[in-house]
Amino acid sequence: MKIAYLVNTYPLPSQTFIRREILALERSGWTVQRFAMRSGRERLSDPADLAEDGRTEHLLKRGLPGLAKTALPFALRRPRAALAALRLALACGGRGAGGAPGTGGRLRHLVYWLEAAEVARRCHELRMPHIHAHFGTNSTTVAMLAAVIGGLGYSFTTHGPEEFDAVRAHSLAEKLQGADFAVAISAFGRSQLCRQARLEDWPRLHVIHCGIEPWRFAEPGPMPAGPRRLVAIGRLSEQKGFPLLIDAMAMVATALPGLHLTLIGEGELRPAIEARIAALGLGERVTLTGWLDEAGVRSELARSHALVLPSFAEGLPMVIMEAFASGRPAIASAIAGVPELVTPGTGWLVPAGDAAALAEAIRNFAAVPTEVLERMGRDARQAVLREHDIDTEASKLATLFRLSMAMPAPGEDAH
User: Fold this and answer.
1) According to the lineage, what is the superkingdom (predicted)?
2) How many domains does the chain have?
């Protein structure tokens, strides 16, 4: 039971869900070889992420000349397959935004082809017949090309929103057609795959949730005493909507003088967010922590009364699962897969991009008695433990791997 995993940049602080999935597969007896185009080591601080980086084979570590030295001889030994993959790469690379042709895209896809030849070579060397890619973007492009070159199977997990923002540029329809199967992390995500897949391919589209490790989340204690505290977690980027959250905090500042927000994360919008906090006089009401390791995030969740997620675009956020496992309800944008997890009993859903609606939800949260918040937190915890246990979800994925490779289930007679 051997399989290759392929990600573009891995590991990253925001990709703990991939690490959890791989470790769950390994606990169940799979051998997983991690491949990534590049390392994100300079952004890592969590010891578990650093250890995962050491277990990952980074294709571009040797540079393109070093990659070509081993990849090209393998490709030349399989000329028909390598040529078919090259044609596919150039066809996919000819699509820019909106499907418009672009020379730059073809050049990038030539690099993807080279990376794919190396992945195929290593899979043959390690006797790994199947590649699973995370994100339906360039990592799946490389997996698709490697499968053609090496005569391998491949599958991939889509998360959103990137894959669905530019489906033609990412050649999503071609990837779905060639894959043994494809996975979405929510029912909403699967619906977006259905839009790109042929009707006869719909049975090969599956929902497998990202998961948490329940044993890392002790039974939560009572809600903290004192004024209400919100926590927000995520990359400080345009899709997360954090500037909108700062505006909403300003709207409720007078009515809720004790309310405090802790914002965990880093990103390109940090200077603009800091400036907005200062301009609105919220310096004492909002704390920016930067990235924290998993223990630090759990500690901040324990100090809070609820998570707030004002995103403009999402898949199905891990931060909601982690907040729920910590016994905290959520205030979140009603987009993508979020309503599949956040319900009236576990939080508040608000229209994305509406600061006034977000402010009203914060007022409603602040007015709820502590015992009601605790009950919502208990219900949220039960929901996430039921639907997002990583060992359960990884076992579903393992079943698909076995079926795609025609392998017997553990304990079955292979003959």
Assistant:
1) Bacteria
2) 2
Asked whether residue 42 falls in the same domain as residue 189, the answer is yes
* pLDDT given for residue 383 in this prediction: 95
Q: Which residues sit opposite 291 in a β-bridge?
A: none
For Cα atoms 30, 33, 35, give the angle at the middle one, nearest 5 degrees: 145
DSSP string, 287-308: EEEE---HHHHHHHHHH-SEEE
Which amino acid, one-letter code, is at 316? L
Tell me, yes or no, whether 64 and 151 share the same domain.
Answer: yes
Can you say how many angstroms the Cα of residue 291 is from the centroid of all Cα atoms in its chain? 17
| Whether residue 159 is found in the same domain as residue 227 | no
Q: Tens digit of pLDDT for each residue in 13-38?
A: 889 999 999 999 999 999 999 999 99
* Residue matched to tokens 């891990």: 318
Burial, 251: exposed, middle or buried (Cβ in 10 Å; 0-12, 13-18, 19+)?
A: middle
pLDDT digit string, tens, across residues 189-216: 999 999 999 999 999 999 999 999 999 9
Q: What is the Cα–Cα distance from 177 to 185, expressed in whole angstroms? A: 19
pLDDT for position 104: 61
What whole-number distance in Å separates Cα of residue 85 and Cα of residue 148? 6
